[in-house]
Amino acid sequence: MSLFNLPPIWMAPMAGEASSAALVAAVSAGGGFGQLGAAYLAPARIVEIAADIRARTDQPFGINLFCPQPWLRDDTALDAYLARLAAWHTELGLPAPTRPERYEEDFDAQLEAAIAARPAVISFVMGDPGVARVAALKAQGFKVIGTATQVGEGRVLQASGVDAVVAQGYEAGGHRGGFLGRAEGALIGTMALVPQLVDALDIPVLAAGGIADARGVAAAQALGASGVTVGTAFLLVDECPLSPAYRAALLAATDADSTLTQAFSGRFARGVANRVTRELEGVALPAFPQPNAASRPLRQAAAKAGQADFISLWAGQALPLNRAPGTAAQLVAALSKGWRA
């Protein structure tokens, strides 16, 4: 099925360090479809970065948000988490960690900012945006995309009226986008998930997870995907503003270093294992987004200090497949070789 006149090679929307106008614009200008991971951005910053993207390219791009997550404040569990962070704060010469003043941005304000920015696509993870919200966005001319980790989630999203669904396989880097059953969603591999969603739905499916080169793109198309979203490979292109420590850790990691962890945010996400993920493995944590906000000062200081053991090194399982230096446009061209027009 058609991807509404957009290229089949999409950059996955990566929040955090990769939320860069230069990177998103370079992907779109280079023949792919760039997306801004805006989940952690203040509404005014979303508008600012979107304007910067537009100043760099006249090609379309997307904006992605996390659906609102139900959570209960748990100061007892949070204080226990902060106590675990304290030793690492001391190691980096930081003040003792404290409870955050703010845990997350206001979703409705973020969405209004995304609407004002007028991207071609507004996409969501970690939930169903709902019939009313999807209809309102589509009435304003946006294409709306949801994220599914199992067929049941895909059916819910289709019933809400989304234009396409991202099939997020187990291999994908970053936070899990599921919302039915377990918080991390179903842990189904991309090769099994994509054809099941293609068969079950009447809307386009984009494959995500484990795709890093032209072979992965060709495989996704053979499984029935209408396009692919690639994240980790774009972390290493010239335009991505990763900290040197993060970049070095990605270049050094092996296939066996990939792990699913709650250690940094309280919600399962895939990245490269380090001291924090190993030492907090199996430890009960307060619900997302409390640890995410609490660990932010540690992560930011570690990035500046070049200490990868304290950074959330989000990356997918296909990380070792694409480490060639180059630009976003060169990566888009390399990936596109796997797509049959």
Q: How would you briefly describe this protein structure?
A:
The chain is of the alpha/beta class.
Provide keyphrases for this structure:
341 residues, alpha/beta, TIM Barrel, 2 domains, 8-stranded parallel sheet, 3-stranded antiparallel sheet, 13 helices, 39% helix, 14% strand, FMN
Question: Which SSEs are present, and which pair or pack?
Answer:
Elements: E1 9-11, H1 21-29, E2 34-37, H2 43-56, E3 61-66, H3 75-91, H4 107-117, E4 121-125, H5 131-139, E5 143-148, H6 151-159, E6 164-168, E7 174-175, H7 190-200, E8 205-208, H8 214-222, E9 227-230, H9 232-235, H10 244-252, E10 258-261, E11 269-272, H11 275-279, H12 290-305, H13 328-336
Parallel strand pairs: 1-9, 2-3, 3-4, 4-5, 5-6, 6-8, 8-9
Antiparallel strand pairs: 7-11, 10-11
